[in-house]
Write a structure and sequence with these properties.
alpha/beta, seven-stranded mixed sheet, six-stranded antiparallel sheet, 26 strands, binds alpha-D-glucose-1-phosphate-6-vanadate, binds cobalt (II) ion
Length: about 550
């Protein structure tokens, strides 16, 4: 018999949601009451969900099912009317966003630490998404965090079991649990957006790609859509079975963790397109034969070619990019005569712009692109967007990118990450940069410097302290910020950008083109002296 129990608990002091939900090591989440406290704190921070629908899914990483069961039991005890859960508690992040929107759910809980490693010693995460399908804005995550610090009890439905490995509907106490196919609704949505006939025809005519699902959530989605609906040859999707530890790999689709894919695309055997997605399916990597497309360029290119895609054939209302993302998209917006919004890092800041119809396409330098079709970034969507463009233009990725650079100039761009540095040292480095805001301009060709703040044009909220920007006279830029998704010490991210309009200088190796700014990025912040690191851990 199902029964509501009230369990007393004591607060944990470290449950502050970061850039995208609460992320901690698995053993932290395994502490008694840790996950329960956070889930109850989410519900305590929301009003009016009695009898309403909650969507639930995750990226399948280690501990996913256990926490999913806790969410279902706590939701039932707190009075939700229905939980819509992906089979085996699986849903990619964009698919969860779609399920929330399609079913007019009250909100959703996504279990994921995205691109962070998984497994018993890896990372886990919990994120709340609101009824628009997007990550809760800061005004909600602040309330959740405050609640985690005072919580004294949580409610949980005990007894009775629900099998979430089987499609169908069951009851837990007064709540309905509906187990849904994680892929079906998403695949259907994609078919309403893109020219599937044109893409299928290009596969039929011999177009070849490799999609690396990195043993993460997009395996089933990519297999169903690319190989199933679009008729790409079997084997197009590799590493397509989601594993709790992602096969021991780091499910971050960048050139470091997808080196095999990169090498293949640079080789004689290269297919036309290489693509990959991350742990929870919201990021994308795009590599053409012989040409890696930076995420910042990809955003600009998708925007510039949007009219080739049925869903965007009437043009874009606006573009939005996170502040560290390169200004390549700004140039496209300018030419299109539309606005380009610059937001703080994290998809939660795009939600208002999308809801208000101010932006249609959004992107981040960290391999995230998406549109108003959901309220999350969307890896498979970005790949289909590229396939649609390629099918319509019938040119190579390389040719399309080259032409874009000739038309708009090139924003050379790279991000240097210094991972797991001492937190005090990282905070000291940032504080020191903040103190230099008045001192640096006028030296080294620096035009301006600030600590980025964002005024949301829709809800009028202001978010401060979002990263130090150094702007150079020649259009170059260095940005420093600390990661809000890491779980070990601090990660310093340094974003370096240089704009080049000279047609004779469009094909320089990126790190070479950026070398003077990279050197300056070290000295201006005294990275080496303060962190003891002379080299970044990861360059993307
Ligand atoms: C990183 C990226 C950011 C992205 C966030 C979540 O955040 O820089 O652009 O939105 O990850 O992406 P941070 O704070 O570590 O720089 V995901 O795919 O991890 O949900
Ligand atoms: Co992700």
């Amino acid at each position: 018999m199902a029964k509501i129990e009230t369990v007393s608990t004591t607060p944990f002091q470290d449950q502050k949601p970061g850039t995208s939900g609460l992320r901690k090591k698995v053993p932290v989440f395994q502490q008694p009451h840790y996950a329960e406290n956070f889930i109850q704190s989410i519900f305590d921070s929301l009003d009016g969900f009695a009898g309403k629908t909650l969507v639930l899914g995750g990226d399948g990483r280690y501990f996913n099912k256990e926490v999913a069961e806790k969410v279902i039991r706590i939701a039932a005890a707190n009075g939700f009317g229905r939980v819509l859960v992906g089979k085996d508690a699986l849903l990619s992040t964009p698919a969860a966003s779609n399920v929330i929107r399609k079913n007019k759910a009250f909100g959703g809980i996504i279990l994921s630490a995205s691109h962070n490693p998984g497994g018993p010693d890896g990372d886990f995460g919990i994120k709340y998404n609101a009824s628009n399908g997007g990550p809760a804005p800061e005004k909600i995550t602040d309330v959740i965090f405050a609640r985690t610090k005072t919580i004294s009890a949580y409610k949980i439905m005990t007894g009775d079991t629900v099998d979430i490995g089987k499609l169908g509907t069951a009851k837990l106490g007064g709540m309905t649990v509906e187990v849904i196919d994680p892929v079906a609704d998403y695949a259907q949505l994609m078919q309403t957006l893109f020219d599937f006939d044109a893409i299928a025809a290009s596969f039929k005519a011999g177009f070849r790609m490799r999609f690396d699902a990195m043993h993460a959530i997009t395996g089933p989605y990519a297999t169903a859509i690319l190989e199933g609906i679009l008729g790409a040859p079997k084997g197009t999707v590799v590493n397509g079975t989601p594993l709790p530890d992602f096969g021991g790999h780091h499910p971050d689709p960048n050139l470091v963790y997808c080196k095999d894919l990169y090498d293949l695309l640079m080789s004689k055997e290269a297919p036309d397109l290489g693509a990959a997605s991350d742990g929870d399916g919201d990021r994308n990597l795009i590599i053409g034969r012989n040409r890696f497309v930076t995420p910042s360029d990809s955003l600009a290119l998708l925007a510039a070619n949007a009219r080739l895609v049925p869903a965007y054939k009437d043009g874009l209302a606006g573009i939005a990019r996170s502040m560290p993302t390169s200004a390549a998209a700004d140039r496209v917006a300018e030419k299109l005569g539309i606005k380009c919004y610059e937001t703080p890092t994290g998809w939660k800041f795009f939600g208002n712009l999308l809801d208000a119809g101010l932006a249609t396409i959004c992107g981040e330098e960290s391999s995230g692109t998406g549109s108003n079709h959901v309220r999350e970034k969307d890896g498979v969507w970005a790949v289909l967007f590229w396939l649609n463009i390629l099918a319509r233009r019938k040119e190579s990725v390389e040719a399309i990118v080259d032409k874009h650079w000739r038309d708009y100039g090139r924003n050379y761009y790279s991000r240097h990450d210094y991972e797991a540095v001492d937190s005090a040292a990282a905070n000291g480095l940032m504080a020191n940069l903040r103190d230099s805001i008045r001192k640096f301009p006028g030296t080294h060709g620096i035009k301006a410097m600030d600590d980025f703040a964002y005024d949301d044009p829709v809800d009028k909220s202001t978010t401060t302290g979002q990263g130090i920007r150094i702007l150079f006279d020649n259009g170059g830029r260095i940005v420093y910020r600390l990661s809000g998704t890491g779980t070990e010490g601090a990660t310093l991210r340094v974003y370096i950008e240089h704009y080049e309009a000279d047609p004779a200088k469009l094909h320089i190796e990126t790190q070479t083109a950026l070398a003077p700014l990279i050197t300056l990025s070290h000295s201006l912040a005294d990275i080496d002296g303060r962190t003891g690191r002379s080299q970044p851990t990861v360059i993307t």
